[in-house]
Amino acid sequence: MPDDTMLSHIADTLEAGAGHNDLNMVQTVIREGKEIMLELVEAQFPFDRDHDGRLMLGREGAHRANRIFHAGGDASGRMLVEYLLQRIPRHVQIREFVTVIDLLVENGRCNGVVLRSKEGQIETLHADHVVLATGGCGSLYCHHSNHQIATGDGLMLAYRAGAHLTDLEFMQFHPTLLVKDDRSYGLVSEAVRGEGGVLIDEHGRRIMEGRHELKDLAPRDVVARVIHEEMQQGHAVYMDIQACGEFRSRFPSITRLCEEAGIELEKGRIPVAPGMHFLMGGIQVNEWGESGIHGLFAIGEAGCNGLHGANRLASNSLLEALVTGRRAAMRIRASEIGKLGSQADEVEAKVVRGARVAEAAVTGEAAVTGEVGMAKEVEAEIDDGNVQHSISIQVPQTSLAELQRRMTAAAAIERNQEQLQGMKQWLMEMPTQALKVQKITRKQLELANLWQLALLVTESALLREESRGAHYRSDCPNRDYHNWGSRQIVHSLTGTQIVRNERIVPSWNVFS
């Protein structure tokens, strides 16, 4: 579009990220993302077009221009996955319905994975490189837009193997999930507001008036908090779609959700509420997706490379997935042909040794990783693929529903020290049962991962005594650039640290 530039997209990403973005990563993804999108257009990917064949570019929250490509109306992600699946070479084997239990790590190098097959057999798969593309952890909360299998498995696999996790306090809650009778049905895309939808209460009052200059298209953290406040005051919140032309054809997926929930679209209102949507943090990686463990990569939502900062800009996630996936593949390919070795040792130096430690978590904080981090005990003998693995997983003696209820109350859109301390105490005092991997069910393993991750998330939210992006502390409602500018909370098996990352540049410095 003539009124849009890469510089404008960069500025929007930095503003949404609340001064916590890695500027180099932002520039890289937006520059290379544009190249990939042009390649897809040239390859005739079925992006939405108007009656004259011109690309229909949409606008979403915190974007100041129409720059969003869509496919199938509101089914871009699904259509992209189907498109790429059709182009996988025939010799590539895809194994579904297996559970990865552990990463094989020896002398600082990841050499493969331990898994349990669909039939329940324990197997090992050896590989020179392992790429985690396991998404996030929406199942930590009662309402979320993720698939039910988003249980933080990849994050905890990497953590238990020795990789670092960072920025876990930054959980994005999408403002508009379709929620009826306390049941969430799915996402009401931000594109609806880009097409004229507005947020109203039960009396028809527009709730975003006077809250932000972009009103209904304000950044997600802003809109989610406003809706949360309205609901806390007893108001119902709706998406008013009366100004959206051709809603059913423009948003077929949302139309199906409404039909499932019994919503009459003719009335022009869809009941909405915020729900967990995206984790800005994750496995700490560099611009190539490399973790601090040789041979272990993390891409997409599973990895944290600094692109999103404290709050992701709408639709930057698919762009990130495309760019980081290609970059990891390039790195692996280059390593295989001997042109370029892995830079994991360089990452390790930057992330840990080279980072200037601003503070170290006090003695009590080390228990986060000391007690919970080693949630497995492993004794294994592996000989030519014949594995005899004895892995014990500490399974918390609670239900997923109870964990979700407590996390939603204490560590969701609005947080404070008292609630977070109570949540941390409940998690740390949780009785557990050690189960051998041969006996543990998939549900028990997922619950163990979520319990362990919940403690790290709670710890991060407690330590960051400020509000920034998607992390909002009602007892510390302002940004604190002096104490928290360019600082990250990093979790590892050796403890929790607050480190300064010089690659993080506050957005207000970038264009001055």
From TrEMBL:
Q: Does the UniProt entry include the keyword Oxidoreductase?
A: yes
In the UniProt record, does the keyword Oxidoreductase occur?
yes
Q: Which InterPro entries match?
A: FAD-dep_OxRdtase_2_FAD-bd, FAD/NAD-bd_sf, Fum_R/Succ_DH_flav-like_C_sf, Fum_Rdtase/Succ_DH_flav-like_C, NadB, Succ_DH/fumarate_Rdtase_cat_sf
One GO MF term on file is: L-aspartate oxidase activity
Q: Name one GO biological process term.
A: 'de novo' NAD+ biosynthetic process from L-aspartate
Any Pfam family hit: FAD_binding_2
The UniProt record lists the FAD-dependent oxidoreductase 2 FAD-binding domain at 3-318
Q: In which pathway does it act?
A: Cofactor biosynthesis; NAD(+) biosynthesis; iminoaspartate from L-aspartate (oxidase route): step 1/1
Q: Print the keywords alphabetically.
A: FAD, Flavoprotein, Oxidoreductase, Pyridine nucleotide biosynthesis
All copies of the Fumarate reductase/succinate dehydrogenase flavoprotein-like C-terminal domain together span 402-491
The EC designation for this entry is 1.4.3.16
Q: Which reaction does it catalyse?
A: L-aspartate + O2 = iminosuccinate + H2O2
Tell me the cofactors it needs: FAD
In which family does this protein belong, per the annotation? Belongs to the FAD-dependent oxidoreductase 2 family. NadB subfamily.
Quote the PANTHER family the UniProt record gives. L-ASPARTATE OXIDASE, L-ASPARTATE OXIDASE, CHLOROPLASTIC
Quote the protein name from its UniProt record. L-aspartate oxidase
Which species is the source of this protein? Paenibacillus alvei (Bacillus alvei)
